[in-house]
Structure prediction request, 319 residues.
Amino acid sequence: MVSDDNLRVDLQAPDIADWRHGNTGVEYAHCLDSGRSGPDALINALMHGNELCGAIAVDRLLRSGFRPTRGRLTLCFANTEAYRRFDPSAPARSRFVDEDMNRLWSADRLDAPPVTAEARRARALRPLFDRADRLLDIHSMGTRSAPVLLIHGLAKERRFARAMRVPATVACGGGHVQGRRLIEYAPFNDPDSDKVALLVECGHHWSPESAVVAMDAALYFLRALDMVDPGYFREHVGDPAPPPQIVLDVTHGYTIRTDDFYFTAQFAGLERFPRAGEVFAVDGGEENRTPYDDCVLVMPNHRAVKGQRAFRLARAAAD
Ligand SMILES: [Zn+2]
Prediction:
């Protein structure tokens, strides 16, 4: 069951109409070029149309006149068609129009004739993602979990996550049940390429804190790339002294098998179970138990149904 608390909207969706016409040839995508050599960075918001925090951060970067100190930064609002339909009285409905845009990032899907709103938009954005060598994809979650940085766990990603310093939890592990996410798009997922893409889950979709976390994620991302003026960073940062990061390795992903799945409590995510064998979910009468001591529940999805991922399990990384 979804508690009403998880559907409460305490954030205002920004009006992004001003950003429709950019300078990239793609609607709702802007390139800020320092004129100096440096990284080709990209910050993406609204891969999911109802995840407001990324839109707020990107809108703030644009409105405040941010300019990178080197290289160039592309700022994108991805699923603007879904975002336009955002309705605070039914906030879960505008995640996408026809299909989840973050399952399309493979050449076979992108090369096929687009038959959905998301496939058309993904095609338009593709050249921007193709040229980026550092990419931050900003998301939020359905529960009141602390923020999490999601990466595969490739050495280049772990290095960049450490350099970024936020958020406090980094989860390394595989992707979704179906389709590929933007962070899995080639060559970001190629260990031999030095291109890196990270996905940040900034907290609950419609909590004011998620907007602060999203802006901080953008600022620390830019600082790790030496692309932000220290004065701008200080003026806009929410948490100037983040705690040390904890790196988790995802060991299990669970796909729901029956029409009768439930968690045994309203878990928000990042709960740590000290003992192996603790029951935390039940699927068709079969108990899901923690497989080892100090097991961490990552991103429980209380809205997931049969065939969808309900949670991940993780443990502290060895290093
Ligand atoms: Zn998302």
